[in-house]
Amino acid sequence: MRVVVPVSGSDPKTRLADVLDADERLAFTEAMLGDVVETLAAAGHAPEVVATAAVDCPAPVTVDERPLDPLINGLLADAAGALAVVMADLPLLSGDAVERLFAPDADVVLAPGLGGGTNAFVCRHPDFRVDYHGASIRDHRRIAREIGADLVEVDSRRLATDIDEPADLAEVLLHSDGRAADWLVDAGVELAFEDGRVGVTRN
Amino acid sequence: MRVVVPVSGSDPKTRLADVLDADERLAFTEAMLGDVVETLAAAGHAPEVVATAAVDCPAPVTVDERPLDPLINGLLADAAGALAVVMADLPLLSGDAVERLFAPDADVVLAPGLGGGTNAFVCRHPDFRVDYHGASIRDHRRIAREIGADLVEVDSRRLATDIDEPADLAEVLLHSDGRAADWLVDAGVELAFEDGRVGVTRN
Q: What is the ipTM of this complex?
């Protein structure tokens, strides 16, 4: 199965700007991408990275400046067989989670993200297309229904946890020991304990 | 196996105060509790609710005013066999997620929550105790290690999504159709689309 990991190489992760400057956000993006690519490879897949600008990464990289929707919909339109798309900002990804994503023999398998996103999918139906704006998980459920595809959703916290906001960095420190976690520790990002959920601070 | 669902019946869910008043927060807490209890019962368990004050709920309720740590540690100390504790604010809970929580035959099974919490556990070891302050998932890993218990963590978004903050309400609307979701719809809470993750607004 073709497995594509799209990533922004141009000013990525702007919602982390309160904690990381622009160069750091690119380096951290590459660390997360490295985790995702290595986890996919260890699970027996051969991920291809498609980036909007050059990125450093332990997998083949194609630069393609198209926005996410036309990029992925072009891949879906051209797909000769099954296509999987896994986002690059999932440093909690584990081999078990990858296995659970690829296990169901359904036309469309969706991995919901926090806040209405769709963090990964597997498509075996010629007519499925993506729409990542708004609450994409709802749109993707609707699109699957409209084309008569059978749909399975994967219930995984590790697939659901995309890293977009400063509070998400705590999830990396709490639940990962890969490149992204190491990068954060080296950058002086630490857990901060307040009432409620754990956040981060930087020294 | 004994399955306990602890819940606060006295001024619960204060971090939702920007969206719901005190009476509403209690009613919404009861709706979430109803979802959790019904899902556990449908999966073949007989949940017992332990509440700090009387709550309305489709399961037997015991009122116990102790804080969470001494309450749960008392149950653990008195347990004759396995004990499961499932938090009451998990309205996304599904039968599959319940099955995955109870499936591993490990001394301690932990279901991490967002932000470092521990949203559910199953304990089959006489010496395991809880500490819900701070990043409890780290403390629970450490405690399991110190007593020589074998530990499994369940990777479930549905078990991880506890509802504490206004943004969490979006997860209920996106991924559940139970009592809590119905309650939010009736209260005029709706998804709000901005940049990034989906939030909620109230009409």
A: 0.96
